[in-house]
Amino acid sequence: MTFFDHFGREPDGRWAAPGRVNLIGEHVDYAQGLCLPFAIAERTVVEVAARPDDRVRVRSRAEADGFDGSLGDIGPGSPGGWAGYAAGVLWALREAGHRVGGVDLLVADTVPLGAGLSSSAALECATALAVDTLYGLGLDRRDLAAACVRAENDVVGARTGGMDQAASLLATAGHALLLDTRDGSTRQVPFAPADDGLCLLVIDTRVRHRLADGRYGERRAAVEKSAATLGLASLREATLRELEALDGDLLRRARHIVTEIQRVREVVALLDDGRLRDVGPLLDASHQSLALDFEVSCLELDLACQAARGAGALGARMTGGGFGGSAIALAPTDRVDEVTTAVREAFAAGGHEDPEVRAAEPSEGAHPLPVL
Ligand code: GLA
Questions:
Q1: Is there a domain that residue 60 lies in?
Q2: Which pLDDT score, from 0 to 100, does residue 211 have?
Q3: What CATH number corresponds to the domain at position 119?
Q4: Do residues 306 and 102 make contact, with C-beta atoms less than 8 angstroms apart?
């Protein structure tokens, strides 16, 4: 169904926002850490029309339900379901003091859902850019990202950090985005695997995850408790030595954070030096740490990484929140077919659903599209 079929009029415009893959720096964005995501080519597209009243209607081509209500009906926990990501942005912008009216919004296309590629952030960011334009807010992309994070944290109720929204709004083609979540500063780090005869593969395990389902929140709580136990504002300031005051789960969770932040620094130094080929061992170490210390991997993610390495990938790790979703593997271009086949065969042999393997291109952040 078209926008016209849903709403009886044409949209005022169309906006696209990409999903993201995180190269490294996992589960550190809520610990004031460093992360290094990039925007992928897959995009969520929203068609939007401003309304003269405060009514809000949200629909999607990919999903049932939606939302039909007024601005005043939007708030923590409402609307539930996927429409909360879009409607929540209107609420967050209003909470920040901006004059925003009603909208009709159709999600016309979407980043693959549940694959760990941040389809939810893409929907928030496309919506934010649309509303900023239609209501002439003139906000900077950092402010838009903050509103998107607020929508996800407060309306949807998923206490995620800000990495996905920053990547979707601030990334540029041919670069990874070094995001320092302590002060929000960013730097574009050249990242073009093809120039080095490499390919960054994304392996969707097809194990679907939901960030709002509790385990993500448990990890975040453990990280916050570790910092509080050490008397620190966050684990960004902690050294491995200081962690000796912790034990058990808190020690392991905290050790992941501290070592992962250091790995991000090392990967950035290699990229700055034009040595992408050498980042493999750091990707592997990140996966180990996420699997053993942070315990957010799963059998299929471990299998994907192991099979990819065995077939010649230089390094591989889970990406995103974990518990399913996608892994990444850095492969020489001439090994891509072998790696893809090896991963699919390993899944078939283990009785798992056939994974989807695709190449990821560091792509541009959110942008308007021409009206059809
Ligand atoms: C999800 C969250 C992000 C980040 C990652 C893990 O994608 O939305 O904020 O915490 O998990 O790095």
A1: yes
A2: 60
A3: 3.30.230.10
A4: no
